[in-house]
Amino acid sequence: MKYSANIDQICIDNLKINALAMIEKANFGFSGAALSAATIMHSLFCYHLKFDLTDPTWINRDRFILSSSHGSSIYYAMQYILGLLSKKDLESFHELNSKTPAFIEKDVQRMQEIHAGLPGHGISHAVGLALAEEIMSSKFPEISHNTYVLCSDSDLQEGISQEAISFAGTQRLSKLIILYDANGVQNDAYIPYMSKSDKSKKYNAMGWNYIFCENITSKINKAIRNAKKGNRPTIIEIKTIIGEGTKVENSVFANDYIPSKEDIQEIKDRITYKRHNNFEIKDDVINFYKANLEKKIENNSWFATKKLKEFLESEIKINLNDVISQNEKSLSFLAGKIINNISSKFDQLLISTADISRETNIRGATGLLAPNNKYGRDLFFGKREQAMGAISLGIASYANLNVVLATKLIYADLIKPSIKLAKDMKLKIMFVFTHDSVFDNLEGYSKQPLYEIASLRTIKDLKILRPVDEKELKGAFELLYNKLNEPCILLLHNQAVKNLEKSDKFKFINGSYFLRKGKSDFTLISTGYDLQIASEIADDLDLNLISASNIDNLDKLNYKWDKSISLESGSTLGWKNYAKYNLGLEKTGKSGKLNELKEYFEFTKQKLIEKIKKIM
């Protein structure tokens, strides 16, 4: 079938008008990005992106991440052309429960690999997917595909993206290609007022290829072809015009400009799209895409080996009976032994750490992943906690890979956006946070967690486990790998402990439980390492004692709220829901020896007994 000589422009114009129609009808959206990215999207999806519409989850498909989340309308318009969305779906843009929310949400059936995150996070997610491809292709030669990410100026200004880009350059992720929509305008001002870096020198120095090209399909195609030949990741800077064709083009007002029907008609008067209904697709566009997609499909000639199929179908199911008990060790040390044991048995487990593995004691058994050792499964990120979280999320979104991420609790807030996304997408990641109280961090304010546990508990239904001893610790791992299909938080102390006589792995897996029934009407509720001292206090005062190390079902236990006392060496925020009286810490910021800090914060056994007696 013969097509018009300007068929590319016809496709691009169709995309633009469909996207603008969505924004106009919804009275919401970002037409600036939709218009500036249209040519990039057409070039990528029509000529390069490898996928099979009949098998959307094909393991060897190219991955695409829309880091520039303001471009959701142009992405939906592309899915409409591909037959993945209907006209009604586009007309329902930004409506409750529609298939076209304001920002994209994970739906692999529609090539949406990961929820849209904060600016810069999409680049990090793409790095995770590209790293996963490198790992998988080293094991299974039939795996070979590219990862593309569309980003904006805003994305590249975020610290997390620079962390991820540096890491990707170090790892030489040659199948990662960033398509940079460089329109040079943001909400407040033009880019030169905020950044004057020489991008070519900058990204070359970070281990990347850098290509600059005009916003023309043939130029973009050439740039992508060259990028795919490189032995380093590539960033392609494409000089675009924000809000192209509108009366606010190339201005700070273009980003969230909402066009009227009259505005759209004025644009149509100057381009190839003349349909009355702005939600229609021209037949030539559909046929052209169909023809090009058929040329790209490799799925029919591609097959997975038995080895790959077995890997994709395998699950991590654990039995920790062969992990030798080591009483009076820190739980972070014991957790390291368990993770080492699991990683030696299951190839799909990777361990992410941020220059702190000797302190957290968490690392695997297979060595460091590096450009010259793709079989290693310890991922050393350096001091890049934010990128570590988002990259780990990208890895866990790929096929059957699992991740354990480990760092100190004080860094949890840097990773929290990735934790929230992992929870929403039900990704099986274990976030291990060690040094989980002031008394594990003797250096002073900047290293002492206080509100972090309370903050994590604000994420609805997130599984948070703070075991007291080895028995509960083993229960935490068995819960994640044998029962859950979602992320969990594991909070660990760094002081030597002994097993409590009445602690119980199986009860812990099911939630909170009584460690002790006393003669008193008062009940002491505690978690983690604090249960060690709480147990001694409960024995001395003959109190009931509850382990809330797994806080699930705590509100279903039979105890008197008005005669209950919570005890945790952190903020008491949130504990009022479970106990009338709350003992904890409301300040940090002192450096000293452990006993000195316990005295200063009045968290010794004697001081706590005095406080509890006063309550009683």
From TrEMBL:
<protein>
    <submittedName>
        <fullName>Transketolase</fullName>
    </submittedName>
</protein>
<dbReference type="InterPro" id="IPR033247">
    <property type="entry name" value="Transketolase_fam"/>
</dbReference>
<dbReference type="GO" id="GO:0004802">
    <property type="term" value="F:transketolase activity"/>
</dbReference>
<dbReference type="GO" id="GO:0006098">
    <property type="term" value="P:pentose-phosphate shunt"/>
</dbReference>
<dbReference type="InterPro" id="IPR029061">
    <property type="entry name" value="THDP-binding"/>
</dbReference>
<feature type="domain" description="Transketolase-like pyrimidine-binding">
    <location>
        <begin position="329"/>
        <end position="499"/>
    </location>
</feature>
<dbReference type="InterPro" id="IPR009014">
    <property type="entry name" value="Transketo_C/PFOR_II"/>
</dbReference>
<dbReference type="InterPro" id="IPR005474">
    <property type="entry name" value="Transketolase_N"/>
</dbReference>
<dbReference type="Pfam" id="PF00456">
    <property type="entry name" value="Transketolase_N"/>
</dbReference>
<dbReference type="GO" id="GO:0005829">
    <property type="term" value="C:cytosol"/>
</dbReference>
<dbReference type="InterPro" id="IPR005475">
    <property type="entry name" value="Transketolase-like_Pyr-bd"/>
</dbReference>
<comment type="similarity">
    <text>Belongs to the transketolase family.</text>
</comment>
<dbReference type="Pfam" id="PF02779">
    <property type="entry name" value="Transket_pyr"/>
</dbReference>
